[in-house]
Fold this protein.
Amino acid sequence: MITEEYVQSLSKLGKRMDGRKFDEYRNLSIEYGISKKSAEGSARVKIGETEVIAGVKLDLGEPYPDKPDQGSIMVNVELTPLSSAKYESGPPNINAIELSRVTDRGIRECGAIDFKRLYDKASGKVWLVFIDIYPINSAGNLFDACTIAAMAAIRDAVFPSIENGKVDYSTKTKTPLPLQKLPISCTVWKVGNELLVDPSVEEESASNSRITVVFTEDDKICAMQKGKDEPLLADEIEKAVELAFKTTKDIRGHFKK
């Protein structure tokens, strides 16, 4: 059994269990359109052995009273025993809720989708964008994997047709979602006194602190989320942001379609 102490002792030596450098990601791949019949947009993301599937469903609904001409998004992450034995079936647990909120915040805060263009004048209703994320194999770094999968599915999504005021899911248009920006997240984890990206499950367990930083393509930070109990010093946050900035640049290069 690999202990937290062992992982932390390796970090003191400047090493990781799989031989990677602290700033080195595992192999990343993005596959689009994996569920064309049951979703308006979909994607599969693999980071090493971590695998996540995301789907986008669209529906016409009533707008919120304070934003009568704007649509909205809803993000849901479902953690099941399929992805890891540590998860149980049932209502979303705190880990699933946090993954959903961090993913949602990165998309929402930068205005990734033009919500005003989700307003349908003919019906007076708005398009609601449901983003469902399903980890298939939880082998570390779900925070980044969920955001990458969500954005890939959004890029893949097109509007369904509207017939007689009702959504016709059997017929899709060629009109994509009004994507304005492409936010990409990088979660930096502190193991011992070292900062690293794309952790394994063992490294996550040995970490007492993490911070997720979301960048847009114009190099602006649009969201940050601190996690776990141990605080980070000011200089550690600065180093984490620099590391996240470099990593998101690399991740963005995989978003070719």
Q: What stands out?
A: The chain has one domain: 16-252.
